[in-house]
Amino acid sequence: MVSPFALTPFAAVMLSTMFALSDDQLALVMTAAGSVPVEKRSTFLERVAARLQLRGPRFTDADLSAAIQVALTGLIQSAA
Questions:
Q1: How many Cβ atoms from other residues are within 10 Å of residue 64's Cβ?
Q2: What pLDDT is attached to residue 79?
Q3: Is 25 helix (H, G, I), strand (E, B) or coil?
Q4: 67 burial class (0-12, 13-18, 19+ CB within 10 angstroms)?
Q5: How many domains does the chain have?
């Protein structure tokens, strides 16, 4: 059984770049991650981190929200 906290090689590299999130920003990421199937959450978090890395060490709440929206693309099945 694979650990739910196992890191992909990309995630391991991303850990070398740390992001400081406010409590509200962290809550936003966690809420969005909760809407993603468990098996796709690491992909979601990697996508968010990649988008924020492009923004540099300082990013706004709007930057984070945009990164979350892009990261969610294709990861959530909508009810038809």
A1: 23
A2: 43
A3: helix
A4: buried
A5: 1
Query: Is residue 10 in a domain?
Result: no
Q: What is the pLDDT of residues 13-71, one digit of tens each?
A: 555 567 789 999 999 999 999 999 999 999 999 999 999 988 887 899 999 999 999 99
- Token pair belonging to 7: 């890191």
d(CA 19, CA 38) in angstroms, rounded, equals: 23
Q: Which residue has the tokens 């999130």?
A: 21
Question: For the whole model, what pTM was predicted?
Answer: 0.74
- For residue 6, tell me if it sits in a domain: no
Identify whether 34 is part of a domain. Answer: yes
Q: Determine, yes or no, domain membership for 78.
A: no
